[in-house]
Amino acid sequence: MAIAEAVLAGFGAAVAAPGVNRIARGFAGWVLALLPLSLTVYFASLIGRVTGGDPLRVTYPWVPSLGVHLSFYLDGLALLFALLICGVGALVVVYAGSYLAADPQRGRFFAFLLAFMASMLGLVLADNVITLFVFWELTSFASYLLIGFAHEQERARRAALQALLITGLGGIALLAGLLLLGEVTGSLEISAMVSKAADVQGSELYLPILLLVFTGTFAKSAQFPFHFWLPAAMEAPTPVSAYLHSATMVKAGVYLLARLSPALSGTGMWAVGLTACGAVTMLWGAFVAYHKRDLKQILAYSTVSALGTLVMLLGLGTPLAVQAAVVFLLAHALYKGALFLVAGAVDHETGVRDVEKLAGLRRMMPLTCVAACLATLSMAGLPPFFGFVAKELLYEAQLHAPAASGLMIGAGLLTNIFLVAVAGIVFLGPFFARAERTTNDFHESPLALWVGPLLLGGFGLLLGVLPEGFTALLASAAGAVRGHPVPMELGLWHGLNPVVLLSLFTLACGAVLYASRAPLRKALARADTVLSETPDRVYEAGLAAVNWFAVRQTRVLQSGYLRYYILTIVLAAVALPGYTLLARSGEGTFNFGPEPRTHELAVSAGILLAALAAVRSTSRLAAVASLGVVGFGVALLYVMFAAPDLAMTQFLVETITVIVLVLVFYHLPRFAILSTGRARVRDAVIALAAGALMTLLVLKATSVGAPRPVSAFYAENSLAAHGRNVVNVILVDFRALDTLGEITVLAVAGIGVYALLKLRSKAG
Amino acid sequence: MRSLILQTATRFLVPLLLLFSFFLLLRGHNAPGGGFVGGLVAAAAFALHAIAEGVDPARRMLRVDPRLLIGLGLCLAFVSGLAPLFVGRNLLTGLWLSAGGNPSALGSPLLFDFGVYVVVLGVTLTIILTLAEE
Q1: Residue A59: helix, strand or coil by DSSP?
Q2: Are B44 and A664 inside 8 Å of each other by CB?
Q3: Which of A532, A540, A545, A541 is nearest to A227 (CA)?
């Protein structure tokens, strides 16, 4: 099995999911989890090879002439993400099977979820930036479907659209940034880009690249000021929140920053941009998480905070900071995934998500309580959990920051103090507070709902106690971010040093903050209403402005009158080539060709007379007949100039037009309202301009432009294409793509006419 | 309005027109003709029948809904264009059957042209028959 097939398998499973769901019923989650599980095992089996410095690479040509390939690359960083995606994915699929057991749309949900998993896997494995971008957009799209899963609720639809628009806009910026990066480095393969840091940073495009990449990744990873879509996305079913919006998708931006770090990092702009934005996001998220009441909202904001921490660490970019980033990334995915799943289980059993109302769950849901306990202790950064290791590294990285170390450590301290209190709020309250009612209404959730969080939480403990097993992979991931190997040694105890003191201080302050939560939370919630909602209001205003503009321009451009559409088309057709003709009037000569023969002149005169008659006529029948004469006259000219195919088609089109006219004749309004004098002058000017332009173009066409007319090529090669009729060979072989486009347009037009006629007869 | 002369003439003309439309389609690669013109002639044949006998008899003679023909024709053209991909050639490359080493006139461009024929027939008849029913 190769890595490309791993991605493909996910999409295959997504297609098969609704069927499996129907057959396996209650066990669908377990059955479908086999795929992510086996992928996890597969990726785990590659750890030895990848950490040994032997990354996997596979490339399929896609558009080789443009350097676009379907290429995948598996190094330490990609492997760390792949393991998270598949491992957490397996648990979430099992969980979702039970969480949505009663939902008739569960099959669809599995399909979306697995499609997301495959897209995310493709994203982290992609080497070519175009491949990466395709998967990047696919994750946004899957996220849209998953957030809007309860599509009958307006809030869910709104949140889904918001997430799609924001990450989608970021995606466009990102695409531009990646293409510029490709332009500067001369390759679209990331593995080639990262070795050209000097070229990139010396280029004048460096700042645009940086800004575009920042926009794309910040939007995806919910950095301030784009952060607001993430809490709104909590409308999604909880398995989605656990999977997409804490462990995987929102880290895609962080992943890409880490991935491009060797090429882009090391400058002041990179460091200031990322650390400032990351630090603000980190503090803001932790602060809002502290005063929210909804369990999922609290977790969402603490995720925003964690994403900010990761971005800040990548901005610091020192070996220590990068180590802290990969360790914290793993620790956060484990505890936050577990906490979301616990929140879902609690919500599923009790129907309540308000932390103030939840109490005494310890007795009713003992296993869930254990899982929650493991996860919150890791979140609070207590030894011997993995979260503690991560926090120690974080403090150490901030203490040794090259600049503004005091500011950093302050922000980091404040954030962690808030997070300790948040850990208390989400865990101690709901599980240990004395319940007012001591009924046993609620009971433990089913196996599928507690096994996931328990495993994730347990893994956080295991890694804290025995980090050695994973150190090689984490070091390899950090090495990929730095661009060269990073030695790493993880441990719980490094002796009594400033970092440990900071940890103790954090815990003490966090405990105080937790103890005084009742008045503080209320006050903060009241104070915060304005600031919290501002970005969302800006988004609303932006959306309204876009809609306003769309309505206005539609009103102007789509008048609904055929004559104005034709007028617009003819005007545009005259103005644009006419401008070119004027601008390049010096080139070429007018080529009048051979002297026209008498019968050609006669036919031309007939066409002109008929056209005049059509314009002057006051009866519709006469106008139609005159136009018919014009059409047949043109067809005659085709015959004279040896274009039988054109002539034949023209004759037939004229005939069919007559049939159509006969059919609609009685339905047309009376031919009574004739255009005014002014309109006639305007139309005459435009019509004459169009005619004059065509004449000039034809006269000049033979003396300007292509040195070797393409018709010669067609004539020479037509026999090789098995045909002696060059016109037809062009239509069905040389330029068949054009024909395909034309018949598609024709088909759409036919369907459009049909719809209009049917709508009209229904309305009438 | 029924006209006996038109009806009688139509009875002879329609098969001839249809045959002619096929003739145009098939000869198109080597002589004037092709899918587009052929489709128009075939549409004219059905339109003539609709004028002489009425829309419903014309629909019955066609057997399928003209809207179906639009989709069918597009599919034929797409399939003929995709076929070369399966033998490692580029999209829409002409593939020709060879009969005992001699090149033949059968190939994917003919199928493509037939797709054009069907689309043109479908679109034209969709418009004409719907209008005639008004």
Answers
A1: strand
A2: no
A3: A532
Residues within 8 A of A (CB atoms), B 25-64 only: 28-37, 40-41, 43-44, 47, 51
Chain B nearest-CA residue for A754: B127
A313: closest CA among A248, A227, A390, A418?
A390
One DSSP character per residue, A617-658 reads -SSHHHHHHHHHHHHHHHHHHHHHTT-HHHHHHHHHHHHHHH
Question: What letter represents residue A309's amino acid?
Answer: T
Residue A740 with chain B: CB contacts under 8 Å: 77-78, 81, 92, 112
List strand residue ranges (DSSP E) for B1-134, in order. Answer: 96-99, 102-107
Q: Are A379 and A390 in contact (CB under 8 A)?
A: no
**How many Cβ contacts (< 8 angstroms) between chains A and B?**
141
Q: Enumerate the residues of chain A whose CB falls inside 8 A of the CB of residue B40.
A: 649, 652-653, 656
ipTM of the shown complex: 0.93
How open is the CA angle A466-A250-A83, to the nearest 5 degrees? 40
Q: b/e for A366-391, b at 16 or more Cβ within 10 A?
A: ebbbbbbbbbbbbbbbbbbbbbbbbb
Q: What is the pLDDT of residues B107-131, one digit of tens each?
A: 888 899 999 999 999 999 999 999 8
User: At A72, is the secondary structure helix, strand, or coil?
Assistant: strand
How many residues are there in chain B?
134
Cβ-based neighbour number of residue A565 at 10 Å? 13
CA-CA distance, A503 to A494, in Å (whole number)? 13
Rounded CA separation A244/A85 (Å): 9
Residue A81 near residue A124 (C-beta atoms within 8 A): yes
Global pTM reads 0.78
On whether the CB atoms of residues A454 and A367 are closer than 8 A, the answer is yes
CB A401 within 8 A of CB A411: no
- CA A338/CA A457 separation, integer angstroms: 6
Which pLDDT does position A255 carry in this prediction? 93
Distance CA A697, CA A436 (A): 89
Q: For residue A469, with 0-12 CB atoms within 10 Å meaning exposed, 13-18 middle and 19 or more buried, which class applies?
A: exposed
d(CA B77, CA B115) in angstroms, rounded, equals: 5
According to the per-residue pLDDT averaged within each range, which of A320-324, A555-559, A662-666, B18-22 is highest?
B18-22
DSSP string across A218-267: HHHTT-TTSTTHHHHGGGS-HHHHHIIIIISGGGHHHHHHHHHHHHH-SS
* CA proximity to A645, closest of A729, A744, A716, A734: A729
What's the pLDDT tens digit per position in A697-726?
888 877 776 666 777 788 777 777 677 888
CA distance A41 to A32: 15
CB A331, CB A237: distance < 8 Å: no
CA B76 remoteness from chain centre: 12
Q: Could B119 and A746 be called an inter-chain contact, meaning their C-beta atoms sit closer than 8 Å?
A: yes
Tracing tokens 């750890």 back to the chain, one arrives at A47
Query: How many Å apart are CA A623 and CA A603, to the nearest integer?
Result: 19
